[in-house]
Amino acid sequence: MKITCISTANIEPARHQSASVRACVLSRDLLLQEYPQTEVEIIPLLDYDLKPCRMCGQCLNTQRCARDKDFNRVFEAMISADGLIVVVPHYAPLPSKLMILTEKMEEMAFLGSCAGSNYRFPLHRKPAAVIGHGGQKPTPEVLAYYQRTLVEPVAMALESVSMRVVGAGKDHPKGVAFGIKSIDLREGSVFVDIEHDWDQIRLQIAPLVHSLAAAVVNRSTSQS
Question: pTM for the whole thing?
Answer without folding.
Answer: 0.95
